[in-house]
Amino acid sequence: MPHLDFTQPPFDVLSPAERQSLKKNTQVRYLAEDEILLADDLQYFFVVLKGQIEKSLGGEFVATYLGSNHSDHINSNDWFDSRRTPESHAQESDNTQHYQFRAAEDTLLLQIDGAAIDRISAQNHLVRQLLSDKLPERLKALQQRRSAQGIGAAATSYTAQQEIQQIMLRPITDVILLPVHIVDADSSLYQAARIMTEAGLKHVLVRPSGHLENVNSSDRTLGILTDTDICRAVSDQQNPATTLCQRYANFNLRTIDADDEIGDALLTMTRYRIHRLPVIDANGNVAGVLGQSDMLAHLGHHSQLISIEIEQAKDLDSLDTAVELIGRYIRAQQQNGVKIGIVSRMVQTLNAQVFTKLWQLIVPDDVMQNTCVIVMGSEGRGEQIMRTDQDNALIIRDDYSHPELAQFADAFNNQLAKLGYPLCDGNIMMTNPMWRQPLKTFKTQISLWFKNTDPMHGIYLSAILDGDYVCGDESLLTQVREHLKVAHRQADGMFVRQFVRAALQFGEVNQWWQKFAPLLGRSSSHDIDLKKSGLFPLVHGIRTLALEHDILQVPSSRDRLKALVQAGALTQERADNLGEALEFFMAQRLAVALATDDKYARQIDPTTLSALERDVLKECLAVVKSFKNQLRRHYQLEIG
After folding, report:
1. Is 395 helix (H, G, I), strand (E, B) or coil?
2. pLDDT tens digits for 352-376?
3. For 260-267, what is the mean pLDDT?
4. If we measure between CA atoms, which residue out of 55, 51, 148 comes closest to residue 102?
5. Which of 26, 239, 434, 608 has the most CB atoms in a 10 Å sphere around its CB?
6. Gap between the Cα atoms of 78 and 10, Å rounded
7. Phi, psi of 423 (to 5 degrees)
């Protein structure tokens, strides 16, 4: 008699007692071809032993579940929970809908009592994650299993590498914070130095004049004075007893919130090359100061070492060494199971430092001060992990010119290519005069793009909307973003409806799944294009909603989703599902790239995935489809 395979997920994490309990509540079920599961059957969890089950909703095909007679082409039996409803991701109706399940051929199933599954899930968090109807939970389970498998451990083991990821996601208050010592701006350097010595610190925070009198002020306006600042004052031959802290303190202070993650703190320190971060609590007060050495000791992470390597680079050869370290870092983090969003944002920060250092090596100081280098596309959004191509631009201050700007731009793009960042096939690079313009000309160009008189205008706008600062005068990019808002408001009211269509132009996922099963056993390719079917519809749909709501100050999909929730444009659950699906597709693409050395990796063969991975893939594709239908309804476009 057929039985459950306890070596395959989701049953490979069960205890002996849990296995015995499931055996008692499992029976074999046979469905003839075209036979369906009736309403009374929708209380069970099923494993497909042999044959094929098709899932549909309202007569529309959704997915296929395959059994062992397809084992030459899949890694394990598929499963499905017939009790799961589409409400969690569809958001398309106020009425409860149920999926329909039909046998596409004679099919043998294992039928497990749903109540038994629920009892085990209540006491086994691993099963609960694997079978959750919440996509983020299932993705978390998949990520943990990949991490364990990547180091050759059992799927349920907890490793040092997994602990890195867990630590990165913990709040920064897990790290021991330095105590808070505040002096007034009109205190002397001597007084500040005495407090540092007594407290055993290398800094004090500085309260600006009028801080206490202003009822609206918060500790975010505090400054910082370090022992280095005092040494600078002494070298300037200033008398510490009479020189005020105001003169040498830095009031352009970076802070971080107490509920932010350790990974966010690491990114901020790496990006801005700072060693201390005041931590602000919910009341706007400083709860403590996060020291870099304390955080690195807590984390045991090495991205900071790459940052130092970049900073110390004196020529292209030494910079090439740092770039190679970034590639190794990506592979190591992927193997250690670190969440893809953390990796991508750190890689964005490190890449920006490479670009900054290269620009510094090429141009004189006055060019640096009068221009702004930006990156766009997936690099600008912080979603490019492998070095695919360059998307960059140079914004020039009005009335500033340099006879060698074109040569500098050519050198920048060509040197990046030598470092392993390929030239952009679409020529969206500063070597192209279109992307190397004075601020005023850039603004005029953007206004033209909003008229949408050329098919390329939407592509150009997408690029500039994703623009993020690298180096130079950041105010130039700020002014470009402000003009984007103005130009959009001045554009045709129908513009955004046309702009969103790009996210809807590719075929629906159900068309792919319908083609998938018949191809099993044939030599024809049945790969799925991760970019067309997953990444692009999500990225561009989120980008369009952000444009509609004037969310132009943040280019990343992650930050756009946060802002859209705050604006009431998306529910928190919808935003979470979109963000998790996006990161799943990114992770799959990275896995293919590392396995094949194909940095442009887009295609994935679902027959190479485990049943758990296929289950999550189906769910993520369903999220994409649901989101596209939401966009069609929102912008009153015909639902296809």
Report:
1. strand
2. 999 999 999 999 999 999 999 999 9
3. 84
4. 55
5. 26
6. 10
7. -65, 150
Rounded distance, CA 140 to CA 67, Å? Answer: 25
Rounded Cα–Cα distance for residues 134 and 160 (Å): 27
Rounded-to-integer distance, Cα 351 and Cα 348, Å: 5
CB atoms within 10 A of CB 344: 25
* Least confident range of 62-76, 278-292, 503-517: 503-517
pLDDT at residue 508, rounded to an integer: 55
Mean pLDDT of 609-619: 85
Q: How many CA atoms lie within 13 A of 290 on its CB side?
A: 32
Query: What would the two tokens of residue 477 be?
Result: 């990019």
pTM of the full predicted structure?
A: 0.67
What tokens appear for 524 in the block? Answer: 């024809």
The token pair that represents 377 in the structure block: 């596309």
Pairing of strands 371-375, 79-81: unpaired
pLDDT-based confidence at residue 199 (cuts at 50, 70, 90): very high
To the nearest 10°, the Cα dihedral for 404, 406, 407, 411? 140
What residue type is 268 in one-letter code?
Answer: T
Output the pLDDT for position 109: 92
How many CA atoms, within 13 angstroms, populate the side-chain half-sphere of residue 243? 20
> What residues does 100 pair with on adjacent strands?
56
CB 598 within 8 A of CB 422: no
Sheet (strand 60-66) strand order = 60-66, 52-57, 100-103
Instruction: Provide the CA 557 distance to its chain's centre, in angstroms.
Output: 7
Q: Which of 517, 505, 509 is nearest to 619 (CA)?
A: 509
In whole angstroms, what is the distance from residue 419 CA to residue 415 CA? 6
**What secondary structure does DSSP assign to 405-458, as a single string?**
HHHHHHHHHHHHHHTT-PPPTT--STTSGGGEEEHHHHHHHHHHHTT--SHHHH
Q: How many whole angstroms separate alpha carbon 97 and alpha carbon 133?
A: 15
Instruction: Report helix, strand or coil for 29.
Output: strand
Q: Which residue has the tokens 């069609």?
A: 632
Q: What is the mean pLDDT of residues 310-334?
A: 82
pLDDT of 241 over the 50 cut: yes
Question: Hey, which residues does 250 pair with through a beta bridge?
Answer: 224
Q: In the block, which residue shows the tokens 């043998």?
A: 108
